[in-house]
Every structure is written in C-alpha cells, then in structure tokens.
Amino acid sequence: MRILLAEDDELLGSGIRAGLAQHGFQVDWVRDGVAAERELATGAYQAAVLDLGLPRQDGMDVLRQTRARRNTTPVLVLTARDAVPARIEGLDAGADDYLIKPIDLHELAARLRALVRRAHGQSDTCLAAGDVVLDPAAHQVLAHGQPVELSNREYDLLHALMLNAGRVLSREQLEQRLYEWGSEINSNAVEVHIYHLRRKLGAGLIETVRGVGYRIPREQA
Fold it and tell me: What's the angle, vertex CA 130, arms to CA 125 and CA 131, rounded to 5?
C-alpha cells in the first residue's frame, strides 16, 4: 500500500516512514507543502499523512486545493494543533481523520488501513475472494484456511486487486501501488508477481483482461 507522508521534521518523518514500512506500507516522504500538493495531484497514493505546519505552503491550504480538484485520496492530518477549532477546520477542509502529535505508530497504521478500507467501500477488516482471505492488520494471507507465504510485492499486488474487486487495474496502476520513488521496475515485474500469485493461490483467482490489465472478479451475493 503506497502512502504519501508530508512532514518537515526530519526526526519525526524518518521515524514515521520506518515505522509504517514495518507495517507493510510503501512510503514516499516530502518535506514541504508545494511538494505535497504536487504529489497528491498524481493520484498515485492510497492515502496521505499530512502535517499542517509545512514550509512553503501550509498543510491546510494543500488540503483545500486537493479537495478543490475533486481529488478523493484519503488524508489523515497529523499536527500539533490540538485546539478543537483547528480540528474542526481541518475536518471541514476535507480531512478524513485527525491525529495529534505525539503519535503511536500502531494507531497511525490502523487508522490508515481503516481509511483505505472505507475509501474502497469495504466494511470488513479482512478481504475475501473465494477461498483466499487477506488480513491487512496481520499482514497475512490464507488460502483454504492455511497461511500462504508471499513476498511484500506479491502481498501488495494481491491487496490492491482485492480492494478493487471487479475492477480492472492496468499494469501502470499496479506499478504505482507497488513501488515508491527510486525503485527500479523491470518491464515485466507485474506479470512475474501475477504468475507467482496464481501458482501459490490458484490459477483462477486473478483474471487477465487482454490489452487492459488484471482483476479479481467481484463475488456475487
């Protein structure tokens, strides 16, 4: 799951990035509001953690500009501004959640998982497709009730497809969800991960839509 972190404090930012990485997130970190607004505009992120006291452009302005463009990326505001009016202003400006510094990284990770889940219309904490169950909190995948060992990339790709069940995701969209800045991406990387997922979880789980991309069919009620 790829997350944008906008935080100008070097010590705090590095700690959050490292902590979220341990929870399975791919984190791109920017240190000012101009860069945060630019990156959010790409639509490449499943969620964003946004400090309000950013240099060059205040985080509240970043949030307002992002929502003015009808960008629906879930945004969790992370700030030392703990007064109730400031929290109300942030939520009314388009924030989806609000955390006051100092933070607990386990709580931050759980809130981000919840934001992404709600953004995709998922009410259950676990995702299921046939006999495959993915538990984001435990970072675990079960097939026929048995745990299956996946690489981080395989897990992230499966998570993206299961969150978007019924929707075709192109190779480019999947690459955006799998790789943070500076990652070297082989031209057939997504295809290789799909191959391994089919081998581990069953050939029928992931459909190829020729010329478009891949999908996991939405189960019929």
Answer: 85
CA 178 – CA 152 distance, rounded (Å): 9
Question: Nearest Cα to 122, choosing from 130, 112, 114?
Answer: 114
* Token pair belonging to 190: 């997504």
Where in the chain are all domains bearing CATH 1.10.10.10? Answer: 127-215
- DSSP letter for 169, please: B
CATH architecture, domain defined by 127-215: Orthogonal Bundle (1.10)
Of 49-63, 88-102, 172-186, the least confident: 172-186
Sheet strands (E) in the chain: 2-6, 26-30, 47-51, 75-79, 97-100, 127-129, 132-135, 140-143, 146-147, 207-209, 213-215
What is the pairing mode between strands 146-147 and 47-51? unpaired
HSE-CB for 190 with a 13 A CA cutoff: 21
Residue carrying the six token digits 């996946």 = 150
Distance CA 87, CA 43 (A): 25
With b meaning 16 or more CB within 10 Å and e meaning fewer, what string describes 12-47?
bbeebbebbeebbbbbbbbbbbebbbebbeeebbbb
Q: What homologous superfamily does CATH list for 2-119?
A: Response regulator (3.40.50.2300)
Quick: pLDDT tens for 116-175.
Answer: 999 888 878 899 998 999 999 889 999 999 999 999 889 999 999 999 999 999 998 998
